[in-house]
Amino acid sequence: MTRLELDSADRIALPTAVANGLNSRELTLASRSQRHLLLTTEGGGEGQIALAGRIGDLQVVEILSIINMFRKSGLLHFNLEGGSKDLHFDEGELVSATSTFPEEELGEFLLTAGKIDRDTLIKTRQAAGNDPQTLRLQLLQGGRLTEQDLRDAGGAQIEAIVYHLIPCQQGDFIFVQRRNTEAPTASLALRTQNLIMEGLRRSDERQLFMRTLHSHNAIPVATGKSVDELPAKEERLLAMASSGKLTVRDLIARSGLDEFQTLSLLHRLAGRKLLTFPSPETPELSADLAEILAVANGVLAALYQKISEKNQNFGLEMRLFLRDLPQPFASVLRHATLTDKGTIDPGQVAANLAKSPADEQRGLLAETLSELVFMACMAARRDLGDTNSLRLVQQAQEIAIRINQLKERKNP
Length: 412
Description:
3 domains
């Protein structure tokens, strides 16, 4: 939460990113009391703000239930750490939903359903410029996918957006009441009230599963216990887990099921004493690898701060870039967390590098981070202009040279 104060002239200075987002539009004082001010922009037919606040004061389930119970139509927008979500309602029923979180993009659900492979998906995204509507058209071209394939994947996407939203405890929201104009583009199996109840059930059960599985980085171990017969999905998952090399996260990616279904089956296999889940050790980067990451994170933080003041979507761009990195860079930053300062959290990086030969880790990390710094420099030139970005880009290039020097440095 950002604290603002009135100055001596009764003015409020907005954070730069907030002011840029308003784009010089006129503000209207819509609601006030001694405890709050609600300022709105002229919507030009975009509807009236009926509800706004912070998650926590109202839980997500309560917000969804209010709209559903009173049959409201409009747009419910959530601004969350790492991204945002838009839910469109028509007389209380959810008809469509979008998300800026990379893992909730339509292509990911086509991938899970086995309708497309990763390489094809990445190429299609690049051709579509990561625009959702263009992506749909590109996926339909050539007849490889049908409109029904997209509707089914869209239904799974909307459900996942809601299920992942329900446990959120931080963020803010706004509901703009207006007539719905969104045409349904997905096949939803559940009505909104049932979707809310299913989301609550999944949230509770997921906590139960993780008490047994410990972490997405845990590596299950087969006990060797004999069993007469297993359902096909459980048998296939047990066979994959029996290698002793795949983490829970790896199994989710390869199972062909969604995350919740995979966790549920793994929990069931553990309950039948067919798998055990030792608590994973917390990996740490060696001193030389930690130094390379710290140097890169320093310049990434500087670039992120300046670019985000002009482009509020830069964090999303970075997450999309991380998601679609080619090999071998993808193996270094897969599932790595981008912090709110634009830096890379070292935990997952350490776990990823541990899978590579020790003599290759330094080069892999340095080259991957150089790619990320180069991408940020290109964004700086685009968003800040050549003149305003010149000094910042020069500093970044000096850091890139430093990273390369660290890569070539011999161990004492």
